[in-house]
Design a protein that fits this description.
Helices cover about 0% and strands about 60% of the residues. The chain has strands at about 5, 10, 20-25, 30-40, 45-50, 55-60, 65-70, 75-80, 90-100, 105-110, 115-120. The protein is elongated and about 50 Å long.
Length: about 120
């Protein structure tokens, strides 16, 4: 079974920074795309950023220039470095990974439980 464990969320001041981490564990052969979604109260879920295994990236327009997604394939971990945080960034952030299971070669998407990011003064 594949599990994604997130960390790094919390309360920060506007203009501050946070780094989210999400480590995948389990019977994983390989991980293709990884990334982050977020959902603020009363809003639709938004795709924040993605990163392919080869490390090509895509960002939502709302976070371009402020957020940086990266990954460490040796650790099956994806990161989201967030800077210049705004109150509008307040949301529950979910990581995902498109994985291939070791035992069955089944491809699927795994999701974390979510970590809360609150930007407030």
């Amino acid at each position: 079974q594949v599990q994604l464990v997130e960390s790094g969320g919390g309360l920060v001041l506007p203009g501050g920074s946070l780094r989210l981490s999400c480590a995948a564990s389990g019977r994983i052969l390989t991980i293709d795309d990884m990334g982050w979604y977020r959902q603020a109260s009363g809003k639709q879920r938004e795709l924040v950023a993605t990163i392919a295994r080869g490390r090509s990236t895509n960002y939502a327009d709302s976070v371009k220039g402020r957020f940086t997604i990266s990954r460490d394939n040796s650790k099956n971990t994806v990161y989201l470095q967030m800077t210049s945080l705004k109150p509008e960034d307040t949301a529950l952030y979910y990581c995902f990974a498109n994985v291939v299971y070791s035992e069955t070669y089944y491809s699927t998407s795994a999701w974390g439980q979510g970590t809360q990011v609150t930007v407030s003064s």
